[in-house]
Write a structure and sequence with these properties.
about 20% strand, alpha+beta, about 80 residues, 3-stranded antiparallel sheet
Length: about 80
Amino acid sequence: MSETQSFATLQKWADARIDMRIECACGRTVNVPSNQILARFGFDGLTDEAADRLRCKRCGERGKASMVPVFWATRRQTGV
């Protein structure tokens, strides 16, 4: 799966086994493991709609979050 692939629904994101980072405009970030995405949101739906429903625990704003995939690299893969 490439970094440019779209995760249109929460189910597709969870099925891809790619962790999710939720970033608020205020700077707060939360990482959600792929196996907890559907449980965290409590429904399967469009990723954009899920982001619009989120309310930040730091600033209290709703709809200011973005969701980005977290691609974990290992030393063996990167050669570092």
